[in-house]
Design brief:
alpha/beta, four-stranded mixed β-sheet, flat, about 35% strand, 3 helices, about 130 residues
Length: about 130
Amino acid sequence: MSTLYITQQDTVLRKVDERLKVTSNGQTLLDIPLIKVSQVLIFGRVTVTPATVATLMEHGVGLCYLSEHGRYVGRLEPQFSKNSLLRVEQWRAAFDEQRKLNIARQCVLGKLANMRVMLLRSNRELERPELTN
């Protein structure tokens, strides 16, 4: 199962039979079986039909709303969420010094890796030798 990210602005997410369809101006941009989706992330101006929201909740699929640029707005979770088990593990990790240290290291490594990618991408236009590799 996978996460469905909808980033295209002014699109509509709707349920058709047992499938999820993303459309824009009458054109289908994506058509995916509902059973393959574990959560949906909506970025910006995306409309989700009420019937689709109800179906997602019935199938245990969470729906997260973010701004166009990825700032968290809110979320809808089904009555029973897999996230409750995740929260328990997060609480356990909060009281385990070694796990906290490992998580902090992974966050820093992820930030550094993302920063490197960002610099390399911006260097494609600048072509500055000190920013290669």
